[in-house]
Design a protein that fits this description.
Organism: Klebsiella pneumoniae
CATH topology of the largest domain: Rossmann fold
Oligomer: single chain
Number of domains: 2
Shape: globular
GO molecular function: GTP binding; ribosome binding
Low-confidence stretches: 129-134
Protein name: GTP-binding protein HflX
Largest sheet: 4 strands, mixed
Number of strands: 6
Helix content: 10-25%
Pfam families: MMR_HSR1
Mean pLDDT: 77
Radius of gyration: 20 Å
């Protein structure tokens, strides 16, 4: 789920904020929240706090989050990096979506944060007509459907 919080943080009528919160209820189902922040905004901490307040109000504040500090291209002498907690877990990624610098670090951080959440699933695919579609059960027990395409070497 992606939710853009830029417009709701300040100066919105109460009924619009309430409607926005209602749409965010799905957030409680998330495995990991990506909290994208404008690192060049002088109100960085205020913006973070505003989002965290809403997350608490919809009872989603216990969901793990990865802070994505965007727009580092607008900061002087700032390099992309991953900040980590005491257990070496990625907690913050500094990048520029505009230039792409640091985006691979985001993928790295996501891989690390979600590696314990992803279970391998296997399906036996036949070579008949070089394509097959088979149902199978994933490691979590969910029924999945795979469309496997094979190409001749």
């Amino acid at each position: 789920m992606l939710a853009d919080t830029v417009g709701f943080i300040r100066h919105l009528p109460h009924d619009l904020v309430a409607a926005f919160k209602a749409t965010l209820q799905e957030t409680r189902q998330a495995t990991l929240l990506l909290h994208v922040i404008d690192a060049a905004d002088v109100r960085v901490q205020e913006n973070i706090d505003a989002v965290n307040t809403v997350l608490a109000e919809i009872e989603a504040d216990e969901i793990p989050a990865l802070l994505v500090m965007n727009k580092i291209d607008m900061l002087d002498d700032f390099e992309p990096r991953i900040d980590r907690d005491d257990e070496n877990k990625p907690i913050r990624v500094w990048l520029s979506a505009q230039t792409g610098v640091g985006v691979p670090l985001l993928f790295q951080a996501l891989t690390e944060r979600l590696s314990g959440e992803v279970a391998p699933a296997y399906a036996a695919l036949t070579a008949e007509r070089r394509a097959t579609e088979k149902p199978f059960l994933s490691a979590s027990g969910d029924r999945k459907r795979v469309d496997g395409r094979m190409t001749a070497a």
